[in-house]
Write a structure and sequence with these properties.
alpha+beta, Glutaredoxin, 7 helices, 14 strands, globular
Length: 265
């Protein structure tokens, strides 16, 4: 075991890129009260879980941080990564009706699920508190607390919607730049959730350039990737290295994979 050292400190040298969860879309459901360690399992109905699976969506629980009024009951957000972030109200069956939604401003969801891992409580909540001090009320209103995103070893970790872009090791200046300009330095990018890990690495490396993936072939531990970058074809090799890491505070060593860019032509 790792003793009292936070897992995000133990993993300070681990690469961020290629560590984002993979999901085509995201459904955000609001619950302003206490969550517990696995709120999606305990607070979400079976019908809503089924609906999300049919949509290829991963569910997050969210709430507004201190100083921001709660959203109306049954509000949801939905991001498919291809269009605007949508906001609506669950119907009488507790299911989203995507035909009856309105456009939402972009939102940054910062994981604060401390019941799941202490790093999220310590570093996620601290980041939000610092942001409250330095951001305008309008920009601070674009921040939500959210349930487990995966990768608390990269805390503070967050997802930027509707880009479906997962971030890690954020600081207040990075958050301010993101909310003000809609962009973020690539060193904070874990990956676009619509991409598999090796392609997440290439996407992060080329950020913020437009990229369209053409092919990805795996040879042993290497991924040979071809993509269009600003209409020009480029080739990349990403390698996957098996590692053992402490993924959670107080936990034992677990198998992990680190992805690194070897070449770009």
């Amino acid at each position: 075991m790792a003793g009292d050292t936070p897992c995000s400190i133990l993993n300070a040298q681990a690469p961020l890129a290629g560590s984002a969860p993979v999901s085509q879309s995201w459904l955000i459901v609001f619950h302003q009260g206490a969550w517990g360690d696995r709120p999606v399992d305990t607070l979400i109905s079976r019908n809503l879980t089924t609906w999300a699976k049919e949509q290829g969506a991963q569910i997050l629980i969210a709430r507004t941080p201190k100083g921001i009024d709660p959203y109306p009951q049954a509000t949801f957000l939905y991001s498919d990564g291809q269009s605007d972030l949508l906001q609506g109200v669950l119907d009488s069956q507790g299911i989203p009706n995507l035909a009856h939604t309105q456009r939402s401003k972009p939102m940054l969801l910062i994981c604060t699920n401390g019941k799941r891992d202490q790093c999220c409580a310590t570093f996620g909540r601290s980041l939000i508190s610092q942001c409250r001090e330095v951001l305008s009320p309008e920009l601070y209103g674009q921040i939500l607390e959210c349930s487990h995103l995966g990768g608390h070893r990269f805390a503070p970790t967050a997802i930027w919607l509707p880009e479906n872009l997962v971030l890690g090791r954020l600081d207040p200046q990075a958050v301010a730049n993101l909310l003000e300009t809609g962009s973020v330095d690539s060193r904070f990018i874990r990956g676009n959730t619509q991409l598999p890990p090796a392609q997440q690495v290439v996407h992060a490396f080329m950020w913020p350039q437009e990229i369209a993936f053409l092919s990805c072939e795996q040879h042993d531990t290497d991924f040979h990737i071809t993509a269009l970058v600003n209409s020009s074809s480029e080739s990349f090799i990403v390698t996957a290295t098996p590692m053992s890491t402490v993924a959670s505070c107080g936990g034992d060593l677990k198998s992990d994979t680190w992805y690194d860019l070897l070449s770009n032509k």
